[in-house]
Amino acid sequence: MPPLISRAALNPGVRRREVLGWAMYDFANSGYTTVVITAVFAAYFVGGVAGGADWATLAWTSGLSVSYLIVMLTMPGLGARADRVAGKKRMLMWVTAGCVLSTAALAFVGPGQVALALGILVVSNTFFSYGESLTASFLPELARPEAMGRVSGWGWSLGYIGGMLTLGICLAYVLSAQARGETGSQFVPVTMLITAVIYGAAALVTFALLKEHSAAQPHMPARTVLQSLRGLRQTLRDAQPYPDFLRLLACTVAYQGGVAVAITLAAIYAEQVIGFQPQETMVLIFVLNIAAFVGAFLLGHLQDHLGHKLTLSLTLWGWVATCIIAALSTSKDVFWWAAAIAGFCMGSSQSSGRAMAALMVPPQRLGEFFGLWTFAIRLASILGPLTYGLITWLSDGNQRLAIGSTALLFILGWVLLLPVDVERGRLAAQASA
User: Fold this and answer.
1) Which residues of 108-146 are buried (b: 16+ CB within 10 A; e: fewer)?
2) Which of 25, 82, 196, 337 sits in a 20 to 30 Å window from 396, CA-based?
3) Cβ atoms within 10 Å, residue 217
4) In order of start, what are the domains of the chain with their CATH numbers?
5) C-alpha closest to that of 379 among 73, 130, 32
6) What is the arithmetic mean of pLDDT over 378-400?
7) Given this model, what pLDDT does residue 119 score?
8) CA torsion 295→300→301→306, rounded to 10°?
9) What's the pLDDT tens digit per position in 49-90?
10) For residue 391, is pLDDT > 80?
């Protein structure tokens, strides 16, 4: 085990190998976001599948929005069900299998098959989002409250390594395929298979090492997926005694909307506006992941000393600078700086947000409240990219205006963060135990 995983950071009874298993899920699923959502399939969908049509970016963001809407309405109920039977790990295994298989199915998408591409995208991203929420709900079981930032940062850092590994292998294949004269419709499907295989293989480590420490909650009411909308309303009512957690959710909706724009549209912006070639875009995203790894690792450790709120505030203003630089970029060299800042801020902002949420979640209702946290993130993932797509469409393809407008989401997130009191939220959560 790496020596940086200190036993002092972990809850009693938790072994360091369990943290490695938990972090390996971030390693496993990061290839999906890096290759499918960010670097490869997104740009291929707009330029190859949809033929560069004016509506292509809006169609891509709409497909993602449908999947996020599904998750928003169903994850709180699924999380409550997992809490009731202490079945988070078992549920994580099922949704992982669904994401791996549907990611591999993207290999069958060719030029012009817009409906097929969007249908499989909705399925794969829905399963991915379920897994992201379930793995986050394990964090309070593993880490002590004062070490949430460090442990969360370990996971995000290992995740970016997984994303870089998957993207690096895909990049090597793409370069060799281009040397053979192959086109995107020939090499993109293979990258989908590579991503699926790495995701599935790495997740096996998680399933082998991670344990479920929470006890079953048989007194909790059972909820079917069809009852999730009603359950979501009930969970929001149940969260009223935790106002700082709710304030953090509102902040998360704002700033994660901007982060979602960067994740889902970076490659499209780089190729359609700045003029990057596919292989250049993959290198760009690779470097962005390096910066994200550094941000998640360094600020994951520093936030436990600086404070989660201050750390998140600093990264939000870094995001504002990123949006302004990207909107004003007229050369690849300048855009590289925007990508580097975005990567650093991406790792630290996501790690800080997850750690703050984990501190303010009642320990006996982890799955349910992290389902609510996922609801906030997915609402953001709808509002941010969909707004970007609408601005682009209504402005006759002016993506510079769209990316510049995204800075407003980060400013709003900072304003909503100001009244959050992390210590007060932590004490409220612990008092309910």
Assistant:
1) ebeeeebeebbbbbbbbbbbbbbbbbbbbbbbbbbbebe
2) 337
3) 17
4) 17-212+231-431 (1.20.1250.20)
5) 73
6) 87
7) 97
8) 100
9) 998 888 888 899 899 989 988 887 777 677 767 666 567 888
10) yes
